[in-house]
Design a protein that fits this description.
single chain, about 750 residues, alpha+beta, Immunoglobulin-like, five-stranded antiparallel beta sheet, 20 helices, 26 strands, about 25% strand, globular, Thioredoxin_domain, Thiol:disulfide interchange protein
Length: about 750
């Protein structure tokens, strides 16, 4: 690849991201409010029953989400403790949600302004104490996780709060909201529903329905005709509406069948007959009554042929989709146009954080071995022409940006499949970690001179000229990216949280800016070669330095082996195979270099270690699993402190008992976690603080992929580890961020 082509590719990537950056001009309306959502509670008596109302007030133009959030988002959540016991209250239907078009043409269902969720109170709660928690995700141009905690007591069902309410809702307002709650309608005579197999794709269904005999009544195009309640394994995509010349409406929902991802797996029946019927619930915007009602429909089977006929029929009809989008754009303050403009204006801040965070990654311990090898290459190149130095560094940059694009694609695919993913997710895969061990081990052997191979950086590494090939520089960028992702640098966490809760394009833009920050020092030296004049001149000393760099890779491999052992629950058989394979790998190259030139013997030893690696890869999933997280817990307990396995129930239990708690979200592969452990958690000062304040210690081990931990982190504004929290004596959860100090922990526990 010529220099001009490399320059063109990198220039295009720089132009794409920079144009997004400079187009930003954040306005007053895009400032994040201090309190995006206010939360209060009250009670309401209706006839002889009492109801608890959870009242929310969103900041203007910000919205939270319904039970089915749509294409993205998270529904409201609630937890109740009555007389210090966890209770499940009977929930009434939620208010009818509004429909929003968010950035990237994402459809969402949720709430603006003030609204209330009602729960029926049992008679024996008339004089009881309560603790109520609520969590939400609130969005406008960005999305922010939020939570609230209130406590007090009921006195004849009257609410007495321990702290003043953030806002008041009158009894008349509550009654009005209560009366408007959607009610069930067992008879919807104008609505016919047909479930059919998608004729084009496997594991896809389509729900068809029509409204006829409306007597010239129009549907409300700002609402869906049907809005589905969530029901596994049905994943409803988006309603499409059509209209004929007689005023009849026809609609369909594309449905993804998620049964193949469930445990146990539920395959889509090939004969169209379900083993047990599925009862699906919908909000129905009834044009006859003008009300939003709840309807149910039981599906015992689905048609194998109706899809093709209906699709041909809809080609003759007028789609209502375009009018729907225009209506939303004209009428809603959180429309597609406004949201996109707001996101473009505010994204500047997060792109800047991503760039600075990527720049700081160059100095993090996880990526230093590869950065050192790249610096070694700069020394090798300093005598070359400016164009060749630029070409080397553009190759390195292209390797970084290409890898970040691949990570973006993987994250989008996993998110689409319903997986909880975060920063450094690839190191939760034992197969990926094993591949990294093998690659880095081979590179280390090359640096020790055991064979000739084009490696990252350097024009004569391993005795082979690489002046004409820039694969090594590209590979160096790939490795730097992969090894940097377990690290969480300052500024990076905020940018990544914004990215993981935004559109796919935003994830790509944020990741590219992290990559540009990581590559920035080498871009500078590429365009301005004089900046490397401070580096020493090439000489014989570089042979010794090369072996030292090989040692740094071996240290990295030791760390990865430790990570791999945690992912495999320290399985003796797997670890013996791994260590034996690495030993045979070393001997195969040593044999060829120092002992014999016989191709037969060299091939035998290469086949032996390759076969062992293949055998490890073919180990059943049940053997390389993550059902137990005791390994890291045992290591931490062996260092003199009593840690317990984290769970949300354990947190709530200790909070309810008024105990002080320190919570550590960590992982074996997280270098920043290790630094915090050495500087703070494993110090005598921390142990003294734990003893003096009688602090309970909870450990959340995210070494392996854990949906519960991932979901809780995302709900609380994190997409990776480390993350630290404390629960003080008042039962309040306090976020300490990604870096901690003894004084900060001590003050938060008070």
């Amino acid at each position: 690849m010529g220099t001009s082509k490399l320059q063109l590719i990198v220039a295009l990537l720089l132009t794409l991201t920079f144009s997004t950056w400079v187009s930003a001009s954040g306005g007053e309306e895009d400032k994040i409010p201090d309190i995006p959502v206010k939360f209060a509670i009250s009670t309401l008596k209706v006839e002889d029953n009492y109801y608890l109302a959870l009242n929310y007030e969103n900041f203007p133009h910000w919205h939270t989400y319904w039970k089915n959030p749509g294409d993205a988002g998270l529904p409201l959540k609630f937890d109740f403790q009555i007389d210090n016991k966890k209770e499940s209250l009977t929930e009434l239907e939620w208010p009818t949600p509004k429909k929003y078009i968010e950035e990237g043409d994402m459809l969402a269902f949720g709430y603006e302004k003030q609204y209330s969720i009602f729960f029926k109170l049992p008679k024996n709660f008339s004089n009881s104490t309560f603790k109520i928690d609520s969590n939400w995700l609130v969005c406008k141009h960005i999305c922010i996780p939020g939570k609230a905690h209130v406590e007090g007591s009921f006195n004849d069902f009257k609410v007495n709060l321990s702290t003043p309410a953030s806002f008041e809702v009158s009894e008349d307002q509550l009654k009005e909201r209560f009366e408007k709650l959607p009610r069930e309608n067992s008879n919807a005579p104008h609505l016919d529903l047909v479930l059919a197999k998608d004729g084009k794709e496997d594991n896809k269904l389509v729900l068809y329905y029509n409204l006829s005999s409306l007597e010239n009544k129009e549907i409300d195009i700002a609402k869906n005709i049907l809005t589905p309640f969530p029901h596994e394994p049905f994943n409803f995509i988006r309603e499409k509406v059509f209209k004929d010349k007689k005023g009849n409406y026809y609609a369909k929902y594309n449905i993804e069948w998620d049964g193949e991802y469930m445990e146990p797996e539920i395959p889509l029946p090939k004969d169209g007959k379900f083993k047990t019927p599925y009862e699906l619930r919908f909000l129905f915007a009834n044009p006859t009554s003008g009300q939003t009602e709840i309807i149910k429909h039981s599906f015992h089977s689905f048609s194998l042929t109706a899809s093709e006929n209906f699709n041909k029929f809809t080609e003759l009809l007028t789609p209502v989709e375009t009018n729907l989008r225009n209506n939303l754009k004209d009428s809603s303050p959180t429309t597609l146009d406004t949201t996109k403009a707001s996101a473009n204006e505010s994204i500047f801040f997060y792109l800047l954080l991503a760039f600075v965070g990527g720049l700081i990654l160059n100095f993090m311990p996880c990526v230093l071995p590869v950065i050192s090898i790249k610096l070694f290459g700069l020394i090798q190149h300093r005598s070359e022409s400016k164009s060749r130095i630029l070409k080397h560094n553009l190759s390195y940059t292209l390797g970084i940006l290409t890898t970040f694009v691949m990570l973006t694609v993987a994250i989008i695919a996993l998110k689409s499949a319903g997986e909880q993913v975060g920063w450094g997710f690839q190191l939760q895969s034992p197969v990926f970690v094993l591949a990294m061990i093998v690659v880095l081990f081979v590179f280390a052997l090359n640096l020790f001179g055991l064979f000739e191979f084009r490696t990252p950086g350097g024009s004569k590494l391993g005795g082979l000229e690489t002046n004409e090939s820039f694969f090594g520089d590209f590979s160096s960028g790939v490795l730097a990216t992969i090894l940097s992702t377990p690290c969480s640098a300052p500024f990076l966490g905020t940018a990544l949280t914004f990215a993981f809760t935004s559109s796919n394009f935003t994830i790509l833009a944020i990741f590219l800016f992290v990559g540009l920050g990581l590559a920035f020092p080498f871009l500078i030296t590429g365009f301005f070669p004089a900046t490397i004049s401070f580096l020493p001149k090439p000489g014989m000393w570089m042979e010794n330095l090369k072996k030292f760099l090989g040692l740094t890779l071996l240290l990295t491999i030791i760390w990865l082996i430790d990570v791999f052992s945690s992912l495999t629950d320290h399985m003796a058989g797997v670890m013996i195979k791994l260590n034996t394979a690495l030993l045979l790998c070393f001997f195969a190259f040593y044999l060829a270099k120092k002992i014999t030139k016989s191709k037969l013997w060299i091939a035998v030893f290469h086949i032996l270690y390759i076969a062992l690696f293949a055998n490890i890869l073919m180990t059943p999933k049940s053997d390389i699993s993550n059902k137990s997280q005791s390994a890291l817990l045992q290591e931490k307990n062996a260092k003199g402190l009593q840690w317990e396995k984290w769970s949300e129930d354990k947190m709530k239990q200790y909070a309810g008992e008024g105990k002080k708690v320190f919570i550590d979200f960590t992982a074996k592969w997280c270098f920043t976690c290790k630094v915090n452990e050495r500087l703070v958690i494993e110090t005598s000062a921390f142990k003294k603080l734990v003893d003096e304040k009688n602090v309970q210690l909870l450990l959340a081990d995210w070494t392996k992929r854990d949906e519960v931990i991932g979901s809780w982190l995302k709900k609380n504004g994190y997409v990776g580890v480390p993350a630290y929290f404390v629960i003080n004596s008042k039962g309040e959860l306090i976020d300490l961020g990604e870096t901690i100090s003894i004084s900060e922990i001590s003050e938060s526990l008070n």
